[in-house]
Every structure is written in C-alpha cells, then in structure tokens.
C-alpha cells in the first residue's frame, strides 16, 4: 500500500516555524507516498454555518497555513512524493492567479502536483473574499475551462465570470498537465466529476460512519456516467482521504485503511492527521507508526 499523509497545515503543529519543511522531508524519507493540504480561510467565532458535525468551528482550524505556500515548501524539500490538495476551495480565488499558482507549484515539484478542488460550504469565507456563494458551481466550471486553456495553449484569452483575460502569452507550462480531482457527493458535483474531472476525492472516516458500499456504488455511478459522456471510465482516478477522529488508536486506523483500500482500490490514499496530533513531532511519530502498521498488511 502506498500511503500518504496530511501536512501540518492546521492546528498547533501548523504554527511551528519550519515545521512543514521538516515534516515533509522526514515523511518522504520514512516512505510516505504523498503529502496533502486542506484549505480553511476563516474560523469564525460565530459562523453563519457551523462546521459539519460541530456547533461551531473546531479548534484545530483556529490556526491555518496557506495551502499554496505549504505545497511550495513541500516541493522544495521532497523529490518523489505526490503533492495533493483535498481540498482547495477553488472558487474563492481569483482564477488567473490560481492558474499561475498551480502551474508554478507543478514546475517546482517536477510534475508531482495533484490538485484536488472543491467549492467550499462556508458563507463567511465567501463574504470575506467578495465572491457570491450562489455562483460557486458555475465559477468552478469556468475555472476548469480556464485551467485547460492555461495549461495547453501558449496564448491565452478568456472571458470569465467577473473577470477578463486579454490575449496574453503564457509560456510557463506544467511538467505534465496536473490531474484535477474534484470533491463532492451531490448530484451536480458527481456529474461534474464524471464529465470533466481526472478523478474523484471521496472521504472515509475512522471509526467508520460511511458504509463502504456507498463509496463503491458512487464510484461505479461516476464511471458509468463518464462512459455515457464519451469518456474512458478507466482514466478516472480516486484520491481517498481518511479522516480519523481524535484519540483514535493507530491500530484501528491502519486496520480501517487496509480494509477500505482493498474495497475501493484508490489510486492515492492519505490519512488526515489534523485531529490526531498537536505538534510536528507527534505528526512525524504517528506517520512512522502508521507506515509500519500498514506495511504489515
């Protein structure tokens, strides 16, 4: 099993000077196949919509690193690990800047970027960036159009939603076109995965709260819809995030990861350590322990 882990971008560990670089380097040396970021702009004291499963915002999100900076740092200190996001709230960013950021990180990492994108759920965050939340779906479709042009054409022009890019030279290209994965379980989100994405970003929890057959049946539907849309369903990848609850034992995490990987057969799997550690040292120790346990099978 090729297992990855979240970079320490949230919580107390995220405030450690040099912590992301130290963890990324050490985790790759220990055998981590991929390193991942999430995206949280705000942690409102009184959120308009609370974090799913909570009455407010979890304390872990009171401290949050910028995901692009974290990926760039990881790119600089690693050589082989895939660098992914699950997920970046793509429609909260200015599209041209967003395209340039992703391209630059892919070049810096020698083609190791796996951008996992979503549209977020927080009205407070959309208000903070001045983007109408009601437009997020069509803005994501527009952004996907722009990324395709940005990564494949040397001269780019685009009339987007609320912005215009005049004909301009864009000769910085990714090492290889990054495989854009999309998050979501809603009908429209899954249809977008089937019709437009290179892969899907499902989530598994430990202890298990989602039936495994829910993931497998959803993936089967995505691939069937992709085939109906004239795409090769075999080309659709899967990057699975495993969210473990606080104080979950490493043995249970490893057991659950082994089970879901055998069932779903994802291309990439990573454990989100956000709720499990409070320091970079704990992040490193738990990474090593989980790699050891999953290697035993």
TrEMBL record:
Keywords (A to Z) from UniProt: Flavoprotein, FMN, Monooxygenase, Oxidoreductase
SUPFAM superfamilies (UniProt xref): Bacterial luciferase-like (SSF51679)
Domain of life: Bacteria
Pfam family, one: Bac_luciferase
Luciferase-like domain segment(s): 5-265
GO biological process, one term: alkanesulfonate catabolic process
Alphabetized GO MF terms: alkanesulfonate monooxygenase activity
NCBIfam families: F420_Rv2161c
Name of this protein: LLM class F420-dependent oxidoreductase
Organism: Amycolatopsis keratiniphila subsp. keratiniphila
């Amino acid at each position: 099993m090729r297992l990855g882990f979240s970079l320490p971008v949230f919580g107390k560990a995220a405030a450690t000077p040099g912590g992301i670089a130290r963890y990324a380097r050490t985790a790759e040396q220990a055998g981590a196949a991929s390193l991942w970021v999430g995206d949280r702009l705000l942690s409102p004291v009184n959120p308009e919509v609370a974090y799913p499963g909570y009455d407010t915002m979890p304390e872990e999100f009171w401290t949050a690193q910028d995901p692009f900076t974290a990926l760039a740092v990881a790119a600089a200190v690693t050589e082989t690990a895939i660098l992914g996001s699950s997920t970046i709230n793509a429609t909260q960013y200015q599209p041209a800047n967003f395209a340039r950021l992703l391209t630059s990180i892919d070049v810096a990492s020698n083609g190791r970027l796996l951008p996992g994108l979503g549209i977020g759920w927080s009205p407070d965050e959309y208000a903070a960036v001045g983007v109408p939340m009601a437009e997020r779906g069509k803005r994501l479709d527009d952004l996907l159009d722009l990324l395709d042009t940005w990564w494949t054409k040397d001269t780019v022009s685009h009339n987007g939603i609320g912005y215009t890019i005049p004909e301009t030279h864009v000769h910085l290209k990714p090492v290889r076109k990054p495989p854009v994965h999309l998050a979501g379980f809603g009908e429209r989100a899954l249809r977008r995965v089937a019709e437009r994405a290179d892969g899907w970003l499902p989530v598994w929890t430990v202890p298990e709260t989602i039936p495994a057959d829910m993931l497998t049946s959803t993936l089967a539907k995505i691939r069937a819809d992709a085939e109906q849309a004239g795409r090769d369903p075999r080309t659709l990848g899967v990057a699975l995030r495993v969210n473990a609850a606080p104080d979950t034992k490493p043995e249970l995490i490893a057991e659950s990861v082994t089970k879901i990987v055998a069932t779903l057969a994802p291309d990439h799997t990573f454990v989100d350590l956000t709720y499990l550690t409070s320091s970079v040292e704990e992040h490193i120790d738990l990474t090593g322990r989980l790699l050891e346990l999953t290697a035993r099978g």
